[in-house]
Design goal:
The structure holds two protein chains of two kinds. Chain A is mainly alpha-helical. The longest helix of chain A has 48 residues, at 86-133. In chain A, 75% of the residues lie in helices and 0% in strands. Residues 163-169 of chain A have low confidence and may be disordered. Chain A has helices at residues 7-18, 24-34, 38-55, 66-84, 86-133, 148-157, 161-168. The termini of chain B are far apart. By secondary structure, chain B is mainly alpha-helical. In chain B, helix 3 crosses helix 4 (66-91). Chain B has helices at 5-12, 16-38, 42-56, 66-91, 98-111, 118-130, 134-145, 150-157, 161-178. The chains are: A mainly alpha, B mainly alpha. Chains A and B meet through helix 1, helix 2, helix 3 and helix 4 of A and helix 2, helix 3, helix 6, helix 7 and helix 9 of B.
């Protein structure tokens, strides 16, 4: 029979032979190789024997108390670590968070509409209005073109430069 | 449809009794896999696997069966466990190399407890498995002990099917030596040919 298999390649086919996964073509090629390769024939026999021993291994049951010990761990997991598991409580709080976000968004929208114009106007006139409404020498701080000496004098005496200039006249 | 589907949905919604039922259904399978992979530390591995499954059941999408998903969780836990054990052994300079494994298993299989006893045979098999490199041990355990199909094993291990085949071959080849007299050639019994 024609043999176009190497021993390395036959290893894969031997595994598949044991597990009944060979196609007809693969089976023919493996048989051709086994006809004259004693090493692979021995491998095939031994692989079968080992697989049989493993498959006959008696299953082992979990030891007594396994379920109870696991239950205790899961109880602990639920009580302590369950709180620490952010995925659980954030998921449960998701509707509350969504509602809060919605309320905040609506409120912010209303405030923007009512105050936008006022805010812009106030900012543009701010220094002048402050100067106008600030009593005494402090108003000089909002005035333009005031020298350092005048500023110091006004702060110390509590009078505005205009007042003092008027008085001196 | 996955026979566990309803229980999974209830467990994901926080129903502890549903998860307990899933444990009852799968504990033997998980424990056996843990035993084959981690030997005497099987309970630690199996318990940790269930705890992780409990934490992560909400993320189970049903792309595979629950049993396969649980296998994957158990494999990951066992792998981490074995890496830690290996690191500990290196630190303690306690060699757990394959030669010692061979000697230990052969002592049991050939000269120790009567290997005809089912429990002793199982112990000898489990010790032989422990002496294999982890990748070979995992492949042969999933196939010959758990009976998974090649495709399932390839998916679980994230390797091509050809790699599964070669790992199985090498694992069984080494086990032939490790199991000693436990594997008795019966000359009257030849594998099917043709």
């Amino acid at each position: 029979m024609n043999d176009d298999l190497t021993c390395d390649r036959s290893a894969s086919l031997i595994s598949r032979h044991i597990d009944g996964r060979l196609t007809d073509e693969e089976r023919r090629r493996l048989d051709g190789h086994l006809e004259h390769c004693g090493g692979c024939r021995d491998d095939l026999i031994e692989q079968h024997l080992v697989a049989d021993v493993l498959r006959a291994r008696q299953a082992i049951s979990p030891p007594a108390g396994f379920a109870e010990r696991l239950g205790a761990r899961l109880d602990l997991e639920s009580s302590i670590f369950g709180v620490a598991d952010w995925r659980r409580w954030t998921w449960r709080l998701a509707p509350v968070a969504a509602a809060l976000f919605l309320v905040a968004a609506v409120t912010a929208g209303q405030r923007d509409e009512t105050t936008a114009g006022e805010t812009t106007g106030a900012l543009s006139t701010w220094p002048a209005s402050v100067a106008r409404n600030t009593p005494g020498g402090a108003s000089v701080m909002w005035s333009e073109n005031v020298s350092g000496d005048t500023l110091l004098s006004s702060v110390l005496t509590g009078s505005s430069p205009a007042t003092r200039e008027g008085e001196s006249r | 449809m996955d026979a566990d589907r309803q229980l999974i949905d209830r467990a994901a919604a926080g129903d502890r009794e549903a998860f307990d039922e899933l444990v009852r259904r799968h504990e033997a399978r998980v424990f056996n896999l843990a035993r084959a992979l981690a030997g005497d530390e099987a309970e630690d591995v199996a318990q940790e696997a269930f705890v992780r499954a409990y934490r992560g059941i909400g993320r189970f999408r049903g792309d595979s069966t629950f049993a396969t998903w649980l296998y994957r969780v158990t494999l990951n836990v066992a792998r981490t466990h074995l890496e830690r054990r290996s690191a500990r052994a290196r630190w303690l300079s306690a060699s757990i190399d394959e030669e010692r494994g061979v000697a230990r298993v052969e002592a049991v299989a050939s000269h120790g407890e009567p290997v005809d006893d089912a429990f002793a045979r199982r112990d000898a098999i489990d010790r032989a498995l422990q002496a294999l490199p982890v990748d070979l041990r995992t492949a042969v355990t999933l196939r010959d002990l758990e009976g998974l199909e090649y495709r399932e094993i390839a998916t679980l291990l994230d390797v091509p099917i050809g790699t599964v085949e070669s790992r199985l071959f090498r694992a069984r080849q080494r086990l032939r030596t490790l199991l000693g007299d436990l594997v008795r050639p019966d000359r009257s019994r030849r594998p099917r040919r043709g």
